[in-house]
Amino acid sequence: DRLMTDIRRSMAKGAAWMVFAKLVERSIGLISTLILARLLVPQDFGIVAMAMSFVALLELLTAFGFDVALIQKQTKTRPALDTAWTYGILTGLAMAALMVALASPIASFYREDALTDVIRALAIGSIAQGFQNIGVVAFRMDMRFDKEFQFLIAKKIISFSITIPLALTMRSYWALVIGQVVGRIAGTVLSYTMQPYRPRVSLEATRELFNFSKWVFLLNCIGYMKERSSDWIIGRISGPMALGTFNISYELASLPSTELAAPINRAVFPAYAKLAHDLPALRREYLSVIAMLLLLTVPAVLGLAASAPLVVPVILGENWLHAVPVLTLMSFFGFTHLIQSNAQAAFLALGRPDVPTKLSGAQVVLQIATLIPFTQSMGAIGAAWAFVITAVVMIPISMLVVLRMLELKVREFVTAIWRPLPAAVVMYFAVAWLTDNLRKPSSTIGQIDELLLVIAAGAAIYIGLVGLLWQMSGKPEGPERVMLNRGLQMSRRFLKWPKQLG
């Protein structure tokens, strides 16, 4: 019907904006990493990672997910918005006070004296972020992702413009710290510039928001343990160099999920919330979205794993060659992570944040249980193995819950997603063979040329195999047809340009 058509159109448009935002943001981040990895040493990244692990722990005070509650309830009443904003200020101030008070004990825990001043400096950013205009949540609620795009990218550009010049002059981790603080201040200023809503101090809607947000808060706490337990464990056991190596590898391996899956999930959540009352419609959209996610991201993940010996020297430089095996393993972790990527948005839309909370809790227990002994025995490589083993164990459990909650048959799910998987596996072995048999030039230009050759070969193999499997399956409706139609539309527009110019 018309409502469903409008939701799909808005969802597709929003997903496109969010993916574009992430691509631009990551392009800036990749350029930043490329420069910073050559200006700074792994220890600098490790010190900042230690500080941010503590900051992220305190940010759980603000992890009530009021923005998620507002979107799920589709409410923009002043009491709800003002209450969410007021709690943001209170928790931001509480965080800053705790950061100043606990900076020295945290430095003692990590045995790194530099952390004291770093954590206290980061407290400024926490205060600034607490005052961010809650009105920006309307960008997502109204599915105005063009505005969300402008907001996210403007913050990233400002932070980049500060960090790189400072790194060039200071050659110190302080460039990263100052860039982080300035980025948060800029985000708050922009939130009032771009959104006319002016919040007021109020606690009127506390009960309404906390009824939903208590589960989101717990989910965020567990999410912190999933994402940050490695910072505490690796930092304590193996020191800042091993932690810097692991975190940079994790960041690169997560590119497909952070640059494609995360923005798409961010865009489709409001659409899922609108469909929560119609389970068959939500199920169809979930299948459509997860199939498209896997089509786009699985080859990127496995391609990164296969080409890690070329990616590391090109992107990070020769000083990071010890990160190659860590990056390879974390890429496989990224592959397993993608399988679960879209279910959480569906659970939250259904008003069931308890489900992903319990699943994530089980994953955290297993992850920490493997992370400690593996890190003690093998350092950063052992930590990577712990992540991979945890994900492999949890995937079957998580997927069974997803299928049950959405009343989705296994055969229906497999039919929607299977074609990219064998194509990506064949591509992986082809790219790994090609990477191993290249002549490995010593110059950066030569390494870039070989990396581009490997990427082109992998893309050609994957696209060809997916197309062949789609043809053999009878050309069913799915992401392949969507991408083909989109490509044809773009080709027609391109062919008309010369005529229009003439």
Describe the 3D structure.
With 502 residues, this protein is mostly helical. The chain has helices spanning 2-39, 42-58, 66-73, 78-110, 115-130, 137-141, 145-170, 174-194, 206-238, 240-253, 255-275, 279-306, 308-315, 324-339, 343-349, 354-405, 410-417, 420-437, 444-472, 479-501. The protein has 20 helices and no strands. Helix 5 (115-130) runs parallel beside helix 8, helix 7 runs antiparallel to helix 8 and helix 9 (206-238) packs across helix 10 (240-253). The longest helix is centred in the C-terminal third of the chain and has 52 residues, at 354-405. The model has no long low-confidence stretch (mean pLDDT 81).
Summarize the structure.
The chain is mainly alpha-helical and 502 residues long. It is 84% helix and 0% strand.
Shape: globular
Termini gap = 41 Å
**Secondary-structure element pattern, one letter each:** HHHHHHHHHHHHHHHHHHHH
The proportion of residues in beta strands is: under 5%
What integer value in Å does the Rg equal? 23 Å
Q: How many individual β-strands?
A: 0
Mean of residue pLDDT? 81
Unreliable spans are none
Helix content: over 70%
Largest sheet properties: none
Q: So how many helices? A: 20
Question: What key phrases describe this protein's structure?
Answer:
502 residues, single chain, 0% strand, globular
Topology readout:
Layout (H helix, E strand, L loop, with lengths): L1 H38 L2 H17 L7 H8 L4 H33 L4 H16 L6 H5 L3 H26 L3 H21 L11 H33 L1 H14 L1 H21 L3 H28 L1 H8 L8 H16 L3 H7 L4 H52 L4 H8 L2 H18 L6 H29 L6 H23 L1
Helix pairs in contact: 1-7, 1-11, 2-4, 2-5, 2-9, 2-10, 3-9, 4-5, 4-9, 5-8, 7-8, 9-10, 9-16, 10-14, 10-16, 11-12, 11-15, 12-14, 12-18, 13-14, 13-19, 14-16, 15-16, 18-19
